[in-house]
Amino acid sequence: MLGFLKNPVVVTVEINMNLVALTVMGLISRLWGLSYPRAVVFDEVYYGQFVSLYMKRIFFVDDSGPPFGHMLLALGGYLGGFDGNFLWNRIGAEYSMNVPVWSLRLLPALAGALCVPLAYQILVELQFSHCAALGAALLILLENSLITQSRFMLLESILIFFILLAVLSYLKFYNLQRHSSFSGSWWFWLLLTGVACSCAVGVKYMGLFTYMLLLTIAGLHFWHMIGDQNLSNVSLMCHFLARGLALIIIPMAMYLSFFYVHLTLLYRSGPHDQIMTSAFQASLEGGLARITQGQPLEVAYGSQITLRNVLGKPMQCWLHSHTNTYPIRYENGRGSSHQQQVTCYPFKDVNNWWIVKDPGMQQLVVSNPPRPVRHGHIVQLVHGITTRYLNTHDVAAPLSPHSQEVSCYIDYNISMPAQNLWRVEIVNRESDTDVWKTILSEVRFVHVNTSAVLKASGFIGASLPEWGYRQLEVVGEKLSKGYHQSMVWNVEEHRYGKSQEQKEREVELHSPTQMDISKNLSFMAKFTELQWKILTLKNEDTEHKYSSSALDWITMDTNIAYWLHPTSGAQIHLLGNVVTWASANVAALVYMCLSLWYLVRRRRKIYDIPEDAWQLWVSAGGICVGGWAVNYLPFFLMEKTLFLYHYLPALTFQILLIPSVLQHLSNHLCRSLLLKSMFNALIVAWFSSVYFVYCTFSPVTYGEPSLSVTELKNLRWKDSWNILIRKQ
């Protein structure tokens, strides 16, 4: 029974020393002197703000992409014990002692270091030689721009890591497909492909380009499987479902989980609240939640409310009125009704309060029990402080002459009767009997007499002149002109009115409300709103000193100065290895020319290379050229400020193509031993030049040693490079 103990337990481990050596060199190149400089470097000033907000659990919105990358940077701060107390207001500012610089920069550096062995593994899985794979890894190792970008609190190195991990995982899965489908390792690599794709997209939306490429390649591979007569229909269906689960369902679930963690962590009100809806703001601790907590849920006749415009751009504002009237004549000579002004005011104010009145009754208090207002009900809106009724009529608005003026009605005993009836339309209703709800309901007010809709037109036009205190214009817009979010309002603050007398009511309007009704949003409601804001919220693009066009990237006609020492000539630049960038362009050109040549020849039934070499050539192009194209060409369609670092994912794929092309040329075009020897000698000389350029530009890659003015001038290999030289 215990016979198995007679022999020793032996564990055999195979260690690829190439991988070990490349990993160690990658770690050294990225982690060496990581805390230097101990100052804010370029976009650390941008990402650092979000890390601080994570540490303090304060909600924010970043329109540059999903939150996963920010959370990874924040994880570095958390592991280093960062309390979030640092003012990220200036590039070059010295970090205070409470900022764990090494810890904050650690994860991007680790990601950049691991890209080196990943590059090696990708070429091995593409069936290239270990020599070619080693060359690809060394090119990634010695690429100055990738080193610079991975040594600071930035996201590109993390994005590239997940992109390469996704490619490697899919290649391993595909190679296992031939002999061990549905095995444990087959499932592992397939699932890891989906996980890595979702992480890449979660870091930056640029990851979506590689995700789409891999989905396309997976689709083509499955299309070929359909033609395999050895596979049964059941087997094909299982393969299809497995790929759908791993490459679509799991990435979608993970993407949602990033937002779930993000919203769970950031539960406190912050500076970005104002662009979110009232319901979202009320779900955060502090801020609006302190005001609205415990408000009545259902709006009833007699309710005292503030109405916030849903659009919220360029700023949030509330329906407002004050005792001042429209001028009898405007500057352009047009006349007005001289009624009380109604505006949209971007600040909290007692003049933002309105009372919902039943047109058939005189009381301005809520009855017992309350009578809720429903979709389609007719109401009057009474201004709380002046007790005048919201009104519109066939008089041109002050700034929008094609729209109707909105006012609070004053009876001048002239032939201009009050027109103050409004129909409540709940835009996001589930049925036609829905009750108007605080914060949750988005409503339109349709004027009964003219069918005009209450609209905050100041979002589109200009603010009112001095007589309107520069507040935003409110108009009555004809429904025939289409739907716009500026026509939609929601109740933000709400109380049940109890005072019929005006003086008592004014005191009531100044006092806080306290009734206990919860208005928590579901996760999916918050996710949908936040996702929409990320996709649609666009900061005004301003011309940056170091911005560039996509055409500048290929030939590296631009650079970015990341940091300059305050007293010496030490500085850090985002500059690539000139030899590597030029070689990558040549490799891409050679690949496309050779591919065209082969295709034409194969069409004529002339096969210059064996079929297995052709398949290898096509596979390399699909991954390397395809990866370069999908990560580069979309930038020609983007209307945003672009920088050189946007090219780095595309460059990485292009670098992987170099040894692929070199091996192909060596194997199939260098036919004689002499040609092979000469070609190998050229490769050695070329690689020596790559290392020489790496060493030459290392001082501006790592920021040390400090260079003299002459040495800095010698580094300006192109007139378009902006090397910083201090005036003597």
Automatic annotation (TrEMBL):
GO molecular function: dolichyl-phosphate-mannose-protein mannosyltransferase activity
Main localization (coarse): endoplasmic reticulum
Localization annotation: Endoplasmic reticulum membrane
CDD domains per record: beta-trefoil_MIR_POMT1
Domain MIR positions: 296-359, 370-427
Cell inner membrane recorded as keyword: no
Its membrane topology: Multi-pass membrane protein
Involved pathway(s): Protein modification; protein glycosylation
EC main group: transferase
Alphabetical list of Pfam families matching this protein: MIR, PMT, PMT_4TMC
Cellular component, GO, one term: endoplasmic reticulum membrane
Entry keyword RNA-binding: no
Keyword line: Endoplasmic reticulum, Glycosyltransferase, Membrane, Repeat, Transferase, Transmembrane, Transmembrane helix
Chemical reaction(s) catalysed: a di-trans,poly-cis-dolichyl beta-D-mannosyl phosphate + L-threonyl-[protein] = 3-O-(alpha-D-mannosyl)-L-threonyl-[protein] + a di-trans,poly-cis-dolichyl phosphate + H(+); a di-trans,poly-cis-dolichyl beta-D-mannosyl phosphate + L-seryl-[protein] = 3-O-(alpha-D-mannosyl)-L-seryl-[protein] + a di-trans,poly-cis-dolichyl phosphate + H(+)
PANTHER family membership: DOLICHYL-PHOSPHATE-MANNOSE--PROTEIN MANNOSYLTRANSFERASE, PROTEIN O-MANNOSYL-TRANSFERASE 1
Family: Belongs to the glycosyltransferase 39 family.
Name of the protein this chain belongs to: Protein O-mannosyl-transferase 1
Species name: Balaeniceps rex
